[in-house]
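Lab meeting, item 3. Inverse folding demo.
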C-alpha cells in the first residue's frame, strides 16, 4: 500500500492509525513481539556460523534470554488485557537480512565473527531504542506491570550489548585484524 502524501508534503495517516499513546505503545509491542520471535529463529544461525567459542556461547546465552523476552512480552500483553499479536517489524526484518548477507559475504573465521558481532550490535541497539521508548510510554500511562517487564528486557539488551563490545575489543576484532 502506497503512502499518501498531501500537496504540502504531509503524510496522510492510514485508516487504522494509532490515535492514542496507548495504541502506539501496543503497536510497538506487536513489532517487538515479532522481532523477538524472529530472533529466536535466527540466533541459532549466528551461533552456528561463529567460530569463536566465546561468541557462540554469548549468542546462545542471548537466545535463552530472547526466549524469556518473548514470554515477558506475552505477559505485558496480558497485563493490558490483550491477546499477544506479532506484526512484522520491518526494521528487524532488515537487520536480520543484513546479518544473513554479512555471513554470506565473509569467510568463516575471525572476520566473520567480527561481522556477526557488528550485526548483533545493530540488533541490540534497535532493541534498546525500542524498549526504552516503550518503557517511557508505559511509565507515562501508569502501566506499572508493563513497565516492569519492559525494563527487565531493556536491561538485558543493554548488558548483551556491553558483553558483545567487550568480546569484540578483547578477542574477536584483534584476531580479525
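The presenter then showed the designed sequence:
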Amino acid at each position: 500500500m502506497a503512502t499518501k502524501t498531501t500537496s504540502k508534503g504531509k503524510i496522510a495517516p492510514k485508516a487504522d492509525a494509532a490515535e492514542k499513546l496507548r495504541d502506539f505503545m501496543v503497536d510497538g509491542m506487536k513489532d517487538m513481539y515479532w522481532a523477538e520471535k524472529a530472533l529466536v529463529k535466527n540466533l541459532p544461525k549466528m551461533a552456528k556460523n561463529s567460530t569463536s567459542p566465546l561468541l557462540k556461547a554469548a549468542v546462545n546465552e542471548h537466545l535463552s534470554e530472547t526466549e524469556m523476552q518473548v514470554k515477558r512480552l506475552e505477559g505485558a500483553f496480558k497485563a493490558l488485557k490483550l491477546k499477544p499479536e506479532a506484526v512484522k517489524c520491518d526494521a528487524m526484518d532488515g537487520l536480520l537480512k543484513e546479518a544473513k548477507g554479512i555471513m554470506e559475504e565473509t569467510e568463516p573465521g575471525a572476520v566473520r565473527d567480527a561481522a556477526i558481532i557488528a550485526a548483533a550490535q545493530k540488533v541490540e541497539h534497535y532493541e534498546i531504542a525500542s524498549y526504552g521508548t516503550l518503557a517511557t510510554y508505559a511509565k507515562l500511562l501508569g502501566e506499572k506491570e508493563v513497565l516492569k517487564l519492559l525494563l527487565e528486557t531493556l536491561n538485558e539488551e543493554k548488558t548483551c550489548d556491553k558483553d558483545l563490545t567487550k568480546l569484540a575489543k578483547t578477542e574477536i576484532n584483534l584476531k580479525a585484524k
